[in-house]
Amino acid sequence: MTVDIARAPVARLGIEDLAACLDLAADRQWPRERRKWSFLLTMGEAYGLRDEHDLAGSVVLSRFGPRLAWVGMMLVAQRWNRRGLGRALMRHAMDHAGAGTIALYATESGRPLYEALGLRVAGTVSTHRGRFLGAGSRTGLTRPFTPADLAAVQRLDAEVTGADRRRLLTGYLRFAGQVRVVTEGGAITGYAGSWRDGETVVIGPVIAARLADAKVLVTDIASTVDGPVRLDTGHPYLAAWAVAEGLARQFEVTTMVHGRDLPGDRSRLFTPLMQALG
Ligand SMILES: CC(C)(COP(=O)(O)OP(=O)(O)OC[C@H]1O[C@@H](n2cnc3c(N)ncnc32)[C@H](O)[C@@H]1OP(=O)(O)O)[C@@H](O)C(=O)NCCC(=O)NCCS
Question: How far is the CA of 163 from the centre of ligand 1 (A)?
Answer without folding.
Answer: 28
